[in-house]
Amino acid sequence: MDTIDDLGLIYRLRPAAMPGAAPLVLLLHGLGSNEDDLFSLAPLLDPRFCIVSARAPHVLGPGAYAWFSILFGFDGMRVDVDEARRSSNKVIAFVGDLIERYPIDAKRVYLMGFSQGAMIAASVALSRPTLASGAILMSGAVLPEFMEHAASADELAGFPILALHGRWDTVVPIAVARNSKQLLKALPVELEYQEFDMDHEISNESFHTVVEWLHERLRAAKASY
Q1: Is 203 exposed, middle or buried (0-12, 13-18, 19+ CB in 10 A)?
Q2: What integer pLDDT is reported at residue 4 of this predicted model?
Q3: Which residues contact 100 (CB under 8 A, 6 or more apart)?
Q4: Which residues on adjacent β-strands are paired with residue 137?
Q5: Most C-beta atoms within 10 A of its C-beta, which of 5, 104, 109, 116?
C-alpha cells in the first residue's frame, strides 16, 4: 500500500487478510531510517495481523528520520528526553487514531520497534500498558529517563515484553541491553529476553523468535474465545 499521511504520523499499512477487527502490529523504525525499512518484514508476518509501519517525525535528511535527537558531548551520549517523550505521545495518539480509522482490535495491539524505535516502544508500553497487549524490543534499550513515567505495578503486572539483542552490537552495546533487562526485571512485566550472535541487525534467528512470539499471542487469543 502507498504511504499515507492522514493521522499525525506518515505510515504504510498492510490490512489483515481476514474480515473483522484484526490484531495490530505497529512497527517503529530505528534512527536514520523510515517507514519502508521494517515494512519490508510485513509479508513475513502472519496475514491475520494488520501491519502498520510509522515514520518518525524528525527529519535528518532525504529518507532519514528520527524519533528523538541523540547528543554527543564530553560526558558521552545523551538523549533529548523531551523530544523522545513528545514522540512517545505522538505514537500513543497515533494508535488511538488507527483504531478509530481501521478495523483493529483495540485489545490486541503489539508494539514492535528496532533500535531507537524499540526505545519509543518501551516508553509507550511502560507508560501506557493499557494501550497495547505486548511489546517487541529489538536491538534497543529501556532508557532510565523513561522509568519515572512508568505506570503503576498493578497496571504493568503481566505485560508481555520480548527483548532481543545482538551480543556483538556495535551501535547499542550488549551491556546497555543487559542493563535494560535488569530495569525490566524490577517491574512485574512478563519478560522474555534473548541474546543472539549478531550485530545491530535483525537476523533470521532473531526474527523467527519474533514470529513465534506473535503466533503465541494469536494462539492465546484464540484459546480465550
Answers
A1: middle
A2: 79
A3: none
A4: 113, 163
A5: 116
Unique residue bearing C-alpha cell 520497534: 113
pTM of the model: 0.94
Q: Using CA atoms, how far apart are residues 208 and 76, in angstroms rounded to an integer?
A: 34
Q: Please enumerate in sequence order all residues whose Cβ is within 8 A of that of 140, keeping only pairs 6 or more positions apart, or say none.
A: 113, 114, 115, 116, 117, 118, 119, 121, 122, 163, 165, 172, 177, 180
Residue of 83, 151, 84, 157 lying closest to 121 (CA atoms) = 84
Q: Give the Cα separation of 3 and 59 in Å (integer).
A: 16
pLDDT beneath 70, residues of the chain: 1-2, 72-77, 222-225
Quickly tell me which residue has 499521511 as its cell. 5
Question: Residue 214, SS3?
Answer: helix
CA distances from 208 to 29, 38, 47, 155, 204 (A): 18, 15, 16, 29, 6
Query: On the CB side of 191, how many CA atoms lie within 13 Å of its CA?
Result: 21
Domains and CATH numbers, the chain: 11-224 (3.40.50.1820)
Half-sphere exposure of 165 (CA within 13 A, CB side): 27
112-122-103 Cα angle (round to 5): 45
Nearest Cα to 102, choosing from 24, 189, 213, 172? 24
